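Study this protein:
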Amino acid sequence: MAQHNVLILGSGGREHALAWSLSRSPLPGKLYITPGNPGTAELGENVTITPAEGAPPGPDAWFEAVEAFLTEKEIGLTVVGPEQPLVDGITDYLEERGHKVFGPSKVAAQLEGSKTFAKWIMHKYRIPTAGSIEFSGEAVLDNLEKWLSTENQKWPVVIKADGLAAGKGVFISRSRPEALEHLGKIRNDAALLKAAGKVIVEEFMEGEEASVFAVTDGRNARLLISAQDHKRIGEGDTGLNTGGMGAYAPAPVIDDRMLKLVEDTILYPTLEAMQQEGHPYRGVLYLGLMITREGPKVVEYNCRFGDPECQVLLPALKSDLLELMLATVNHELDKSEVVMSDDHFCCVVLASGGYPEAYAKGKEITGISKVSDGAMVFHSGTRHEGGKLLTNGGRVLNVVASGSDLRSAIDNCYREVEKISFENAVYRRDIGAKGLRRLQ
């Protein structure tokens, strides 16, 4: 099979995991990552791609620079890590110029980029999800405030800003005063306010959250194992929301029967819906689910691998990731099979003290060389300076280990976490606890 030069877009733990998995394939020629991080630099070549001097502002100038790099380096496949370039339309831009991209089109990426679009799809095609009401127009927040003040309102409710908001656009409001406080946060945060041109209010769903991931060429799909993320900074799911403090896979709440139910009632109906709308979904589809008494329901769609879920999914993938991605972009996924490990995997995120609010950077990281060969450390917010590895972000490192069962995977992971240190490092000590309780 021909070798392929590959470009990965992104710089976090997800992109390090993608680079690790793709570098294990016999198919890549040269692996490039932009902008990458110190971890990806050990697997390929980190490159800086910037718009031409004097280029007008906006994503197209960067897309043009990426396209020029693809042509120069004869890149056979571009893998888009984060959601923003997908929502901005990078797949359409590059495919129109003859390049192969693993990631959905601009319209298909609206399943994540616009919560009102996702709800419209789910309601139109009767895909299980929470009931909802949409608010839009110039006085959207004022109208929402009036509605929330009606006497017959049932609590709690979930308030969601329509657009991308870096994980900060969803609020669970358990009372009218709390809902008004959440509206105040939206009004006083420029990024949230920009994302809240439309707002969805959902009924609160009772159950346990988990995620299912599928690779799809628009018609065929191949399921990966389930995973469960831990969004809150504090143990017991307390404190502020973050980008994710850890994950484990598979999630016991999604057994084989539940996975088949997700496939039949959510995954394939979603793919069929996007085909019917004339915008087939290709790439990886992230199904954020609530497992309720009535069955699985969609909390949200994401148009890319989760972070840190990607860091436990890819080590569990025994199939060749690049081969799978090429089958996806070439519409040949029906010829591919996915083989997943029987082991369990746990990821713990080491973060800078103060995250997700203000935190210091530039703290020296030590101990990574002591981590066992069987474990993995994926970089997220790090940089090299003066021959030292330093912290350079809120989420700094992702430590991943496996085991024959969930308990051993968790124990193995925390054993490796304790070998790594930097000033004011914080991490949750209860990653996977929900899964253990369910197994008891």
Summary: Residues 196 and 432 are 33 Å apart (CA to CA). The longest helix spans residues 256-276. The mean pLDDT is 94.
